[in-house]
Design brief:
By secondary structure, the chain is an all-alpha fold. The chain contains three helices and no strands. It has a domain of about 45 residues. Helix content is about 90%, strand content about 0%.
């Protein structure tokens, strides 16, 4: 399981510019791997958004039904 601490560390790594420095120092196949990692991160974010949105919309819908009963 990914921890909040690891996510925060990765965020700091990106924000600090170290990611770009590392990207520029790698050979093309290493750069591709780093970009694939970011692409996967985007996919994970989209999936998390979809899952949590469904959860809260369902929960919201249940609350509306309870109030109208």
């Amino acid at each position: 399981m990914l921890t909040l601490k690891k996510l925060q560390e990765f965020k700091e790594y990106l924000a600090s510019g170290a990611f770009i420095e590392d990207l520029e120092m790698r050979p093309p196949d290493g750069q591709a791997e780093m970009l694939d990692m970011l692409d996967l991160l985007f996919e994970i974010c989209e999936l998390a958004d979809e899952i949590i949105s469904k959860h809260f919309y369902r929960k919201w819908g249940e609350e509306v039904l309870k109030k109208s009963s």
